[in-house]
Specification:
Elements (H helix, E strand, L loop, with lengths): L3 E2 L10 E2 H5 L23 H19 L1
Antiparallel strand pairs: 1-2
Bound molecules: zinc ion.
Zinc ion binds next to loops.
Length: 65
């Protein structure tokens, strides 16, 4: 059984399934893919895109230190 969380999609703020949340994926309405969202940034909202930029910075920091 899967659960739907209202207002939980990290990309559009819509309804989100528990399984996709666990996988770090936005909902199927705004992001109907099973790929790492940061690899398809043109499909992301500015809010989610900011998260990807933050992840890039962390990766960059880890490489340099
Ligand atoms: Zn969504």
């Amino acid at each position: 059984m899967k659960a739907i969380y209202v207002g939980s999609c990290p990309n559009c703020g819509g309804e989100e399934e528990d399984g996709r949340l666990l996988e770090g994926l936005p909902c199927t309405v705004c992001f109907p893919f099973k790929e790492d969202p940061c690899r398809l940034r043109e499909k992301l909202s500015s809010r989610f895109e900011a998260y990807c930029r933050f992840k890039d910075k962390v990766r960059e920091f880890e490489r340099e230190n």
